[in-house]
Amino acid sequence: MQVGTLSVRGLTKVFETKDGPVTAVDDVNLEVASGEFFSLLGPSGCGKTTTLRMIAGLETSTSGTIAFGGRDLAPLPSASRNLGMVFQSYALFPHLTVLENAAYGLRVRRTPSVKVKERVVHLLELLGLGGLHGRYPSDLSGGQQQRVSIARALAYEPDMFLLDEPLANLDAKLRVQMREEIRRIQKELGVLALYVTHDQEEAMSVSDRIGVFRLGKLMQVGAPTEIYRNPTTLFVADFIGKINFFPAASAGKGDVTLGSGWSVRPGSRHPLSAAEAAGFGVTSDAVVAVRPEHLAIERHPAEDGIPGRVRRRLFLGSTTRYFVTCDASLKEVIVETPRPIEGVGEGDGVTLSFDPSDGIAYVGSESP
Ligand SMILES: Nc1ncnc2c1ncn2[C@@H]1O[C@H](COP(=O)(O)OP(=O)(O)OP(=O)(O)O)[C@@H](O)[C@H]1O
Ligand SMILES: [Mg+2]
Fold first, then answer.
1. Of the ligands numbered here, which is closest to the C-alpha atom of 53?
2. Is the C-beta atom of 198 inside 6 A of ligand 1?
């Protein structure tokens, strides 16, 4: 066990409700290293907040263990876990100034006031609040208030920095700016961060690693590039970025044959469970997933590839997006190219193709 590592084992939470038990978190296993920025990502209701609250000691677990630096946190109440927490609502004290709000946790811990001032002034400086020490929360913008709550959470040098959708109340531009600031200050202080979000772009941009949740279960853990390039389930493939699914038949030796008859050997291969296949309306024994930027589109009929017809072409400036109707796909295909393809317009018959190594196969017969 490394110093400063968070270790979660078999963490489960069952809520008893009037409609019966609800399993909010289901056997989650997780190891987050010291100084790491780790995001819990998933759709609404998948158990992110409940997981974070159990780690924070704000919620009891039904079973499982949570340890920090090898020490079991179960006996410790939330206040003794040395955490810095930031929520969607800033929860600042309205009668305290910026400086007093940020220093709150240190004062409660009876830290000598010279030290408090030094630390808090430094943090406020790092967060661009240097000139606002004497202001009250009511005289600050939403972004500034959230910065104060971040300073307050980090002032007493917490072991873990826990954030639950901290940017949800900010406008789109400020969200992008603030997430960069959160990442910068986290790296500067070297504090372990657990960041809850349902925004996959946000998670991709700030995290060292991401854990993708679905219905209380941790589906996949990995670096953003790994999760994007090699999702191990249809759910993660579909949830992260855009992707196209082509039904296929397993042709042995790692080859699969697409509905158009084109045989390829995809770059990676994962089992496809019967439940997932049913959930995505897959009736074939395999599916090949391909990202829009990995598809090529051409006007002339080609021997290898997937035939389709362009329904809509969208020029988006830095890319051009084509929506292609195609029999050999689960739904309308999205193709994204850096520039418009000469001579390919709406209503045109086209052939789609991809480098097989960019394809990801999910094969049913190989599932346990
Ligand atoms: N106190 C509670 N009592 C009963 N059920 C609860 C309670 N808290 C959460 N749940 C249920 O547990 C599941 C997970 O909730 P949780 O708040 O952890 O989801 P989340 O991933 O944070 O979602 P969101 O993105 O909407 O915040 C949901 O089905 C929710 O209804
Ligand atoms: Mg939540």
1. 1
2. yes
Can you list the alpha helix ranges (DSSP code H) found in the chain? Answer: 48-56, 98-108, 113-126, 142-154, 172-189, 200-206, 224-229, 234-239, 274-279
Domain(s) labelled CATH 3.40.50.300 in the chain stretch across 6-228
Arithmetic mean of pLDDT over the chain: 93
pTM exceeds 0.85, yes or no: yes
Q: What pLDDT sits at residue 368? A: 41
> What is the 200 CA–ligand 2 centroid distance (Å)?
14
**Residue limits of CATH 2.40.50.140 in the chain:** 242-366
pLDDT, tens digit, 9 for 90 and up, residues 233-265: 999 999 999 999 999 999 888 899 999 999 999
Q: What is the CATH number of domain 6-228?
A: 3.40.50.300
Residue bearing the CA closest to ligand 1, atom 1 = 15
- Model pLDDT for residues 274-288, shown as the tens digit of each residue: 999 999 999 999 999
Q: How far is the CA of 166 from the centre of ligand 1 (A)?
A: 17
What's the CATH fold of domain 242-366? Answer: OB fold (Dihydrolipoamide Acetyltransferase, E2P) (2.40.50)
Torsion of CA 78, 83, 89, 95, to 10 degrees: 90
Task: For residue 97, count other CB atoms closer than 10 A to its CB.
Answer: 17
Atom of ligand 1 nearest to the CA of 53: 18
